[in-house]
Amino acid sequence: MASVPSLASSLDRRIADALSAALPEVGTADPLLRRSDRADFQANGMLALAKKLKGNPRELAAKVVEQLPAGDLIKDVEVSGPGFLNITITDEAIVKTLAERAADDRLGVPFAEHPGTTVIDYAQPNVAKEMHVGHLRNSVIGDAVVRILEFSGEKVVRRHHIGDWGTQFGMLIQYLIEHPHELDHEGEVSGEEAMSSLNRLYKASRTLFDSDEEFKARARRRVVDLQAGDEETLALWQRFVDESKIYFYSVFDKLDVEIRDEDIVGESGYNDMLAETCRLLEESGVAVRSNGALCVFFDDVKGPDGKPSPLIVQKSDGGFGYAATDLSAIRDRVDNLKADTLLYVVDARQSLHFKMVFETARRAGWLTEGVKAVQLGFGTVLGKDGKPFKTREGETVRLVDLLDEAVDRATAVVREKSEKLGLTEEQIIERGAQVGIGAVKYADLSTSVSRDYKFDLDQMVSLNGDTSVYLQYAYARIQSILRKAGEARPVAHPELALAAAERALGMHLDQFGENLAEVTASYEPHKLAGYLYQLASHLTTFYAECPVLKADTPQQVENRLFLCDLTARTLRQGMSLLGIRTPEQL
Ligand code: ARG
Description:
Blueprint lengths: L6 H16 L10 E3 L5 E3 L1 H9 L3 H10 L7 E7 L3 E6 L1 H12 L14 E5 L11 H19 L3 E5 L8 H11 L12 H21 L1 H16 L2 H25 L15 H13 L4 E3 L2 E4 L14 E4 L7 H15 L4 E7 L3 H13 L8 E7 L2 E2 L16 H23 L3 H21 L7 E2 L2 H4 L7 H17 L15 H11 L1 H11 L2 H21 L8 H25 L8
Parallel strand pairs: 5-6, 5-10, 10-11, 12-13
Antiparallel strand pairs: 1-2, 2-4, 3-4, 7-8, 8-9
Bound molecules: arginine (ARG).
């Protein structure tokens, strides 16, 4: 595995060297290299430098050019405008660099220089509740960020902070005690069945709770038993958790997101720490009692009435809330899991909560300077009307229904093309799922995390435009060309002159590592999606302008196959970092 320097970074080095050779008195200076439409690159560094030295930028640029003889890397360099350099790279350097990438499993992408440990909180549904589009976002974004970070060499610890604790369990457990067979099943249950019995039970117990005072009292006492760790109560609580997990796993499976049991550490997992967390906060004075509740105040956080609105870590009745759990989780993640970065893929509507929780943890000394805490607060999924996505009846949309519909639509598209390809029914079903789920994931990941987006299936499964299907087709089309190539293999020929479309494709391929470095540092999968879409667009232009199998010479056929193959591998790697499959045939 060898990391391959990009053309941009090699060039940057050369110009920086030329700069110091031309102006030994400055030492080092940034050439400020940019991609350019006029040439391949433009270097603007001479402008700033001349200003600093009170010299003439064009003269300075000319001196630098003298130190930059054309050769293996640089084909042409000229001083332009007020004093920047336009630089064209040789075709040979492009193909040579790409050949080095092709020889590496990681396509020449380096590991991060200083990998650390990130604990990421994502895919956190709630026990005994349906999963909705919000859980689509926290699962899909989280999964992509995990893959991207791991690819960079970061150690990643996954935490699924599921909602598995709270007063509602008193009501559910009490109901189950009084109706003991409600969760019994014969044989194995499907995720759907598990959810439907949980739903039934939830509704029935809620109705009873709201209408029957005595049941309400029994349910409240049951909460106390649960919190006291009463064995029978805990065993029943566990049944709800297990039943819900059957459902969660079935949805994650459909979503093609891998979740491991050992990474599910829900709210209940921090129970033993809550009292201590509160005690430490109170003793250190970070939190104070206010009307019996334990509160943390912030100068800049006020309610609508203008009064300070605190973070409540313990309610006046002694109950611990969401904040106490999150604070305890921070202690666990920093002290025990040794995180230096904490990520939270959680709805942007919880931003105030996390702002207050992070600030409290800083004051308490649990989040030290060396530890970064970031909420990747995601936007809302909207319906076609631009309002938060709801069913016609005004209810939240079930995630499974959405996924099923996406897969149905995609399967229809695949089926239509299947005859020509001779796909079996089994293959049609498999590809339909890969295309449908890919479409949903891509639509989500190609919008920046914090933005709202409209859930529009017609657009998502469209073959044209910025969709996963377009990218999957680009990949499959290359595979089909490679299959048809017969004896001809992908082989790089650096001695050949490149057509404009080949150069553009090649230069873009070379930027994969730089794009990933940026995506990794900023946690912005949409920039990777954007890169891949551009890659597929360059490929489309390349096809239109450069015949592959019918190219002029056998060398040119091989070289074009080489470009195709590297494009396919880059697409597959990039898509896989987004959690999206690339079928070999579509
Ligand atoms: N269970 C919550 C929900 O469904 C998300 C939990 C977010 N994570 C956390 N550490 N608070 O909205």
